[in-house]
TrEMBL record:
Residues 8-107 form the HTH hxlR-type domain. The keyword DNA-binding applies. It holds the Pfam family HxlR. Gene3D superfamilies: Winged helix-like DNA-binding domain superfamily/Winged helix DNA-binding domain. This is HxlR family transcriptional regulator. The keyword rRNA-binding does not apply. Keywords: DNA-binding, Transcription, Transcription regulation.
Length: 128
């Protein structure tokens, strides 16, 4: 089956994992353990509470993360990867290997693109 045939036969909703900058970071942070919200936030470091909440809800909705609420005062909530989330973790690990292997190429491509974009913008300003 070609990739275009695959896309044609599958509804877009099934293929869409709402990848944000944080999706794979959250998944990899839950790699080995169940974490409370603040533990997860501290382990990631630079993520805002709002973005982490949104990312966790999307991952939970799609079946990658489970959320367990404990009836304590204050309430305790823990997050962990589901079996599906473990499969996504394998993909995240493969992406990390790919990006580490090709980091220099990506950085060079970005430099060339930025330089070309900068000079194109300069030409536009000059030609006005």
């Amino acid at each position: 089956m070609t990739s275009s045939a695959f896309r044609r036969d599958m509804p877009d909703e099934v293929l869409m994992v709402r990848p944000s900058k944080w999706t794979l970071i959250v998944v990899t942070s839950l790699r080995n353990e169940r974490l409370r919200f603040n533990e997860l936030r501290r382990s990631i470091g630079t993520i805002s509470q709002k973005i982490l909440t949104t990312t966790l809800r999307e991952l939970e909705r799609d079946g990658f993360v489970s959320r367990t609420l404990y009836a304590t005062i204050p309430p305790r909530v823990e997050y962990e990867l589901t079996d599906l989330g473990q499969d996504l973790l394998e993909l995240a690990d493969q992406l990390e290997i790919f990006f580490r292997a090709h980091r220099a190429q990506v950085e060079e491509a970005r430099r060339r693109f930025d330089a070309a974009s900068h000079s194109a913008n300069a030409r536009l300003v000059i030609s006005r």
